[in-house]
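If you are new to this repository, start here. Below is one unmodified record pulled from the training split, so you can see the exact layout before writing a loader.
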Amino acid sequence: MPFLGTAFFQRDVVEVARDLVGTELVWHGCSGIIVETEAYAAEGDPACHTATRPSAREFMKSRPPGSAYVYFNYGMYWLFNLLVKGGERDGLILVRALDPRRGIEVMQQRRQREKLHELCSGPGKLAVALAIDGKHHGTPMTGRQRPAGCGLRASATTTEHEVLCDVRVGISQATDFPWRFLAKDNGHVSVRHGRVKKVA
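And here is the target side for that same chain:
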């Protein structure tokens, strides 16, 4: 299947976040089906980095749609996001969970876990499993500058997922935005539908 083009990321950030569920994230010999995402809007969303981080606002201005936005969270985990701009709402999409497909043995070694559902069932976990870190910040995931062996594509190995929406995880602002999208009944998601605990 062909890799997704830049135009895929030139739409409304919430729409793109939903449509990413069921696509395959390919990363240097490993891959997984995206089963959970979260949308963050550049405007009107206090939980988005653009609300508080000038560097995030500059990233959105200077980078093309589909670029990887990678940051270190709570001094513990790298998190992998994708830039969306050019549609009704610009923003960032956090890739929260994958259903592993390729390079599973390598991911098991990196995560020091054997069970498939423990490899990529959370944004920090999938970054460890794929060996994503700060040096990948800004990586173009579409277009001519996309590195060989990286990208996103429609999956040829799974049937279409039924996508559910829910509130986002681990945030203290805009907690009622239903902008988390997850594949129904998939055992690889980080938090099951309806189970998000609000942050005090």
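Two things worth knowing about this chain: Residues 6-183 form a domain with the 3-methyladenine DNA Glycosylase; Chain A fold (CATH 3.10.300.10). Residues 23 and 154 are 5 Å apart (CA to CA).
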